[in-house]
Amino acid sequence: MASKPHQAKSFEEEHAEPDELKGCLGCCVMCCFGCLTCCGCRNVVCRKIIFFPPNPPFYKIADEKLLRIPPDLLPHSEVLTEQDTKLMSQAKLARDLDVRVVRLKTSRGSEVCGCYITHPKATDTILYSHGNATDVGMQSYAVETMVINCRVNVFFYDYTGYGWSAQQGQPSPAHVESDCEAAYEYLVETANVPPEKIILYGQSLGSVPSCILAQNHKVKGMVIHSGLASAIRVIKPSIKKSPWFDLFRNCETIKKARCPVFVIHGTVDIAVPFSNGRLLYDNAPMKIDPWWVSGANHNNIEMDFHREYYVRLIKAFEQFTDIQKKGGSGPNGAEYKVPVTKQPKTSL
């Protein structure tokens, strides 16, 4: 008997992740979270399984200047001692870059740290929301590199309960929302950055505040880097509909984004499964070509794929500018659509 011809797998089949929480186990996890929500314990659970602020923080503020941990200590962050924190020195930025440290007052009454790094030739400003296990000090090195390579200004900030604001309260979904709005308000009202010059950038958990801002404000564009579709979909990717107790429902919020979206996601991401990025891309009303990073996990894209990472970022920023010139502004604006082309297979 002749054998059947081999059929090539589709992109989705080739990069499908196993659903480890299928059946009874997945239902048990969701039921437990639902019960805890009913009991009023949701914020407590969130702090235990979602928010991991570095302790001790990777920076201090002295005389309105950012003092950050030297980069050679970053890999040993889990075992930092009080003596290590004394080795912090004033952030030495590349020539011609300016850094401004600010304290942001949020609508919920807390104060959080924000840092604004500017480039003399920048025309756009990135509003950067970081992940759940980092802070302004740790993130400052990656942000500095982005400023230099992309010639943009970047404003990045901590969430309540992180870094300098660790004594201001415990992190929570409500605080994340008020924190990001305070950051946006600072850029527009204090730094005098026009909304049409602001590009949102959300990495991992930072995709949540970025999607909130994209829904609430008409900005130039948004980058979602290893973002989650929702909290439940991180542990059970195959779920079709969010249960009532689900948190961080980016897959719904992004449908109301008022700007074009660029999605970046690693195909072997085990922290936030690849299907999360795919769903965010599918649900965005206006988007440019995504970057599905073959072989990348959750935290290595900027390092292991750095050349292509910056090439694609710069290209995305240029596409945001082109869309803006043609009048495209998402579901509430013109009907300009960005053509989606085939994903290139080669990397730099």
Automatic annotation (TrEMBL):
Residues 327-348 are annotated as: Disordered. SUPFAM superfamilies: alpha/beta-Hydrolases. InterPro entries: AB_hydrolase_fold (IPR029058). This is Serine aminopeptidase S33 domain-containing protein. It comes from Lotharella oceanica.
